[in-house]
Design brief:
The chain has one helix at about 115, and strands at about 15-25, 30-45, 60-80, 85-105, 125-145, 150-165, 165-170, 175, 185-195. With about 200 residues, it is an all-beta fold. A hairpin with a 2-residue loop joins β1 (about 15-25) and β2. The relative contact order is 0.16.
């Protein structure tokens, strides 16, 4: 909804993320950590607001939404059935959400050095980055399968809890009147670990 008020296309569906990590199991106690990140992109057309353009009567806007986070976790393996392991983990960490807008008032993809540093209203391209650092907590239910003693496949159902921080523009300007946005929700992770599994 907040993107629509700025004539930007809303993102549909979820965001795929990729990452890596590692861990150690001592008896039934699990300790480890991992990091992950992903992004989405959309394109919009939106009107100028009192600005002039060399060609078009609207901005061709690219909006990029990205996130990244890292956390450490501790967990407990509560059930073993053959090569299957069932566990619960609690992770704590932090990350960043970034929303980048690139407004292009022309179809050309090259601009001059002078224009990129200029302060005039005759726009060809303009971009800014809105970002927020956050505290992150993640309870997880994990199912693992050990294959051959050196490979472990896993799938995890997570609840992603984000405690919002302050939004800034270009890392310098603190933003006021930020609408309430909810980033908490459920997600699914899957992957493979290589190591020694007893």
């Amino acid at each position: 909804v907040e993107l629509k008020t700025a004539y930007l296309k809303e993102f549909e569906g979820g965001i795929f993320g990729f990452g890596g990590g590692g861990g150690l199991t001592l008896g039934r106690i699990r300790i480890g950590g991992f990091g992950m990140g992903g992004d989405r992109e959309s394109q919009s057309k939106r009107p100028f607001r009192g600005l002039t353009s060399p060609t078009d009567d609207h901005f061709n806007t690219i909006t990029k939404l990205s996130y990244s986070y890292g956390l450490g976790y501790i967990g407990y393996e509560f059930l073993r059935l053959g090569d299957f392991r069932f566990a619960v983990d609690i992770g704590l960490g932090g990350g960043t959400i970034e929303l980048k807008n690139i407004d292009r008032a022309s179809s050309q993809s090259i601009i001059t050095w002078e224009h990129s540093l200029g302060s005039h209203l005759y726009l060809i391209a303009y971009s800014r980055v809105l970002s927020m650092n956050f505290f992150y907590y993640q309870p997880s239910l994990v199912i693992e399968y050990i294959y051959g003693g050196f490979t472990k496949f896993f799938i995890a159902g997570d609840y992603s809890g984000i405690v919002n921080g302050k939004w800034k523009q270009d890392g310098e300007f603190e933003l006021m009147n930020v609408p309430k946005m909810k980033f908490n929700g459920f997600s699914i992770r899957a992957g493979v670990y290589l190591g020694i599994f007893l």
